[in-house]
Input
Amino acid sequence: MRSNKPMRRIPFSELQSTLERAMLNLGLTPERAALSARLTAETDRDGVRTHGIARVPRFAEMVRLGSVNPHATPKLVSSFGAIERWTGNRGPGNLAAYAAMNRAIELAKLHGLGAVALAETTHWQRAGTYGWQAADSGLAAMCWTNTLANLPPWGATTPALGNNPLVLAIPHQHSPIVLDMAMSQFSYGTLAAYRERGEQLPVPGGYDESGALTTDPAAIERTTRPLPIGFWKGSGLSFALDVLAAMLSGGRTAHQIPSDPIQEVGLSQIFLAISPTSLGTITELNAIATGAIDALHAATPITPNRPARYPGEATLATRKESLHLGVPVDETHWQRLLDLAK
Amino acid sequence: MRSNKPMRRIPFSELQSTLERAMLNLGLTPERAALSARLTAETDRDGVRTHGIARVPRFAEMVRLGSVNPHATPKLVSSFGAIERWTGNRGPGNLAAYAAMNRAIELAKLHGLGAVALAETTHWQRAGTYGWQAADSGLAAMCWTNTLANLPPWGATTPALGNNPLVLAIPHQHSPIVLDMAMSQFSYGTLAAYRERGEQLPVPGGYDESGALTTDPAAIERTTRPLPIGFWKGSGLSFALDVLAAMLSGGRTAHQIPSDPIQEVGLSQIFLAISPTSLGTITELNAIATGAIDALHAATPITPNRPARYPGEATLATRKESLHLGVPVDETHWQRLLDLAK
Output
């Protein structure tokens, strides 16, 4: 996301080691601090700045308030064949999600596909992290989380749905297809960023006070009526993802999650991994994906020489640049992280 | 969908037996003709008139032209644990899809979850059919199909994506949650219906000749630029669903499917079933879904006394009315069906 804020570039290794010190200070064991630091640093490295170090101060505050227990680890609750229920025990959400996807991958290697339903967890930071995790292991994956209620269902004006990010990941040579999308067209963070820059949204993003669709971010902030993707469709999809995650995990649905972001705990998540190589050869699988990518790129672009892109396509270029030139971070976020790493 | 066309109501049993005669005339065996007739009659019974008897003349034409083989049955290609590859052998798509979901349900009962990836199939008619099939058996399900390319990817003006309907189904007492949504905001059939009535779309549905978002259905028909749900998000989701279905089934992606609807064959589909009762009791599972439904209904409605609805909520009322008063059908569609049933 673009920003007017002062930026700087930090070498990846410095970003990671700084995060690691901050996590140690918050009480994580060395091994868990290192993993958490890597996942967060990789998020900024890949250009998803809303969900990297920007979120660490909130995480620290949640640890301080006791809503996240830095010592809690995910535990198996029950299992049946290729599906398992786990609880996150309200520990760090990224570590629980990483463990859950790892376990789903193990199950998929045994059974062709496998799922972990995780209850009582906390914010997993970047959703796409767990898609990359699977795709980098040669697995396809689908995962999603519910959230606090922040989106009115279609036909209503008060929030009753989460924006419930959904991830689909497909391995493909060195450039996987990774889709990471929330059920609202724009997050509140994105609305705020547009407002601060004095810009209109590129497409309608919600409703104004008169109930009309608008591209004015401030109007949507005032009504708290952001638009679900596809209007009634995203509303329905958000609801179905929420209920399925809660039912399979034995956990909470959106309306049972505290509405204060600093207390957004008790989330329900699903991690589904599928092993394409249990059914086809890598050559065959790659050829299918490459053919589809080529056809996508062959569509006539609106802007000459800017072909349509597949989900995740831009990530590798951003990643390469971050590793070469340093990871771009907001100056303010960096200073806050340094404070936590002291 | 509303229509200005003359309608009549046909008793469900008469609709079903008429369909059965038509399918026998097209060469289906008695058992397969009966199943096909039931699935199609249930589609009209549930009010999804675009995908019920309205589609039978096209199916008959595809059989006549040889693009659908009425005698072909789905066959297992390979399997690994809880996932299987099948081919539809270009037989009737609804029968292949029904068999695939049945097999996914069997796998889920054995393994907690199960999947069938189906290649070389033909149009499955109503997507939601296979969601209801799973939910009525107490299983949760996710299934999707690719289609011919009929949707420009985000950033392009020519079709390279299918509208790839996606279904999520969750069992819940006698009233399952069943979401059935295509990746375009409106189908071409819906655009035509609005144009014929001289109405504007309720929300923007695509682009006009100047490249601006429009609610004018005729303008979208002219540009063939319908809107993916959530703009870039639905574009990415459509692409990922397409590639995943083709990779797992070893089948075709959208760009390899003939662009003439009468030759839309060789589709790839995924049927994933999950057994919630392998992890929780029915009482617990129902309580979770009921709680979420109650919270949805409690959101402040835009129109007083018209609460937000969950996906599938309206279906049971429509079904009951159809069974009581007869199934509403277009007079023209009914006459065409009678011709095929002679």
Q: What stands out?
A: Chain A touches chain B through 85 residues (CB under 8 Å). Chain A is about 40% helix and 15% strand.
